[in-house]
Design a protein that fits this description.
Layout: H1 2-22, H2 31-59, E1 63-67, E2 75-77, H3 79-85, E3 88-93, E4 104-111, H4 112-119, E5 127-132, E6 137-141, H5 142-147, E7 151-156, E8 159-160, E9 170-172, H6 181-184, E10 194-199, E11 205-208, E12 211-214, H7 215-219, E13 223-229, E14 240-247, H8 248-254, E15 264-269, E16 281-284, H9 285-290, E17 293-299, E18 304-305, E19 315-318, H10 324-327, E20 335-341
Parallel strand pairs: 1-10, 11-20
Antiparallel strand pairs: 1-2, 3-4, 4-7, 5-6, 5-10, 7-8, 7-9, 11-12, 13-14, 14-17, 15-16, 15-20, 17-18, 17-19
This protein binds ligand MTE and molybdenum atom (MO).
Ligand MTE binds at residues 96, 132, 134, 136, 187-188, 190-193.
Signal peptide: 1-23
Protein name: Molybdopterin-dependent oxidoreductase
Domain Oxidoreductase molybdopterin-binding: 57-174
């Protein structure tokens, strides 16, 4: 589209040049003059294209707020809305700038506490989880939000934050003003490219075609327990843990999917990386039928729900009986949708 626009604009501009003279030019422009006009037109076009690319990139970056929100609904903040909300600023070193670890930057962004006050603010909730484009996630305590100005930064020294520096939305902690905060939140907590904020933990909800299954539906299926090392790191105890849930094949069959006519199933989680068509987590039907692939909804001796800080409420898990090809895939966190491929 961008390329097309360049040509369209160039065509219009050169048409413009020609038309100026239609009305009564006695002399046609010299070749030099034409070259200058062409250069101006193409420079201007390059500018337009660059501006467009920037704007598109920014406009596409929404922040989705979910979980136990005040309205009980998902709230989506667009990039222009985030710009309007970005009234907080903190001067701090950038924990991930290893070249200039002492350089202080002015980060401007949305105060996480003000988001919480506006869209959350339910007293029983203790923590907020940030989910990133690449399925990385970070959880902070609400009590710390109230104590420290923690922001979702949209700008660093007045400029949008480049992707390789954590942009467009970068979770920033006031290290310079409150050095002690480092002990609780190390540089690994500075989440890059944040896409979702989750207050507490969401309700379990798995979509399969036009069916939506909730925890009550899943609980009616035969329950299985795997004892496994968890396939991603965040917050789980190290070593083997009990994961309780339901077999993927039972979930699909409850939703009326005929596995015999399905070649594979794509398992999509909340982080955008799972939504990219280029990198889906796609499981072959024969594996779904033959080895332990479950949607875990509870864990541990006490069968607690899986909180957002552990990738819950629903997480994909592979049993030891699955082939290493299966087990080497990512365990999908925040599972939201199963899409059978025919
Ligand atoms: N979105 C996202 N943010 C992230 C990470 C990540 O993998 N993804 N890694 C964290 C960790 S553990 C560190 S130390 C810093 C720097 O990560 P890097 O060394 O992978 O750049 O970013 C933090 N923020
Ligand atoms: Mo790290």
């Amino acid at each position: 589209m961008v390329v097309l626009n360049v040509w369209k604009n160039l065509a219009l501009l050169s048409l413009g040049i020609a038309m100026v003279c239609l009305g009564g030019c006695t002399e046609s422009p010299t070749d030099e003059q034409l070259a200058v006009w062409r250069k101006e037109a193409s420079d201007r076009n390059a500018e337009i294209v660059a501006e467009k690319a920037k704007n598109n990139q920014r406009r596409e970056w929404n922040l989705v707020i979910q979980g136990q929100t005040a309205t009980g609904k998902t709230e989506t903040l667009t990039w222009p809305q985030l710009q309007d909300l970005a009234t907080a600023s903190i001067n701090t070193v950038d924990a991930n700038n290893i070249v200039h670890p002492k350089q202080v930057f002015k980060f401007t962004g949305v105060s996480v506490n003000s988001l919480w006050q506006k869209l959350g603010n339910q007293t029983e909730i203790k923590e907020i989880t940030f989910v990133c484009y690449d399925a990385y996630q970070v959880t902070i305590k609400i009590e710390d939000l109230l104590k420290y100005p923690i922001i979702l930064a949209v700008a660093k020294d007045g400029q949008p934050i480049p992707r390789e520096q954590g942009g467009l939305l970068y979770l920033v902690f006031p290290y310079s003003q409150y050095p002690e905060i480092r002990n609780k939140y190390d540089e690994g907590m500075w989440a890059f490219y944040v896409t979702h904020v989750i207050f507490g933990t969401e309700k379990a909800q798995v979509r399969i075609g036009n069916r939506e299954l909730n925890l009550v539906d899943l609980d009616k299926l035969p329950q299985v327990t795997l004892t496994q090392n968890v396939g991603y790191r965040v917050w789980w105890p190290s070593g083997k843990v009990n994961l309780h849930g339901v077999r993927l094949r039972d979930v699909l069959s409850l939703a009326g999917v005929n596995l015999n006519s399905t070649t594979s199933v794509v398992v999509r989680g909340k982080p955008p990386v799972y939504r990219k068509n280029s990198e889906p987590i796609e499981l072959a039907t024969e594996d779904i039928l033959e080895c332990s692939i479950i949607l875990a909804t509870r864990w541990g001796e006490e069968k607690q729900r899986i909180p957002a800080k552990m990738g819950g409420p629903v997480t994909l898990a592979f049993g030891d009986d699955c082939s290493s090809k299966i087990k080497n895939q990512r365990w999908v966190t925040f599972v939201e949708e199963l899409t059978p491929q025919l």
